[in-house]
Write a structure and sequence with these properties.
The structure is a single chain. The protein is 34% helix and 25% strand. By secondary structure, the chain is of the alpha/beta class. Strands 1, 2, 3, 4, 5, 6 and 7 form a 7-stranded mixed beta sheet that branches. Helix 2 packs across helix 4. It is globular and about 40 Å long.
Length: 160
Amino acid sequence: MRRIALLYLAGMLLVIGCRTNLTPLEGGNIHSTRRVLIAGETSPFKRELVARLIEKLGARDCYYRIIGLSQLEQQETGQYRAILLVAGYRAGRIDERVSRFLQKDPTNRKLVVFYTRGTDTPLPDKDKRDIQVDALSSASSLDRADRLAEQLVALLEKRL
């Protein structure tokens, strides 16, 4: 039993330790009132998705700021009309940083959540209880990044 507990703990530390934040970046029209905050963790797929998303937002006269999920709780969000959270869904749960942020205002109209899972099958209703805002999920497949970026832009545009 002790060995199983130690293996589980080591596995969780590996998963948590491997998470890294998106690289901070600002761009677009600084004077635009169409402001988007993107907070997320990174992976090759998420970097590609965010790059395509920024490319599409840039063509729509928006200002955007990218931060890591670790900086989300310290970030003043009042100036943004849309907030996109990019995270993973592991072991049946959305990233705890996203959960904590969602708990502050679970129906915040500014929020859109994008999370990656190991599958494209729909999330069971019992697992959706933490996410009461618009959300989109996908397996991490680079060939879907452009289509998913379009879908996310459409969700963000509703808020801008």
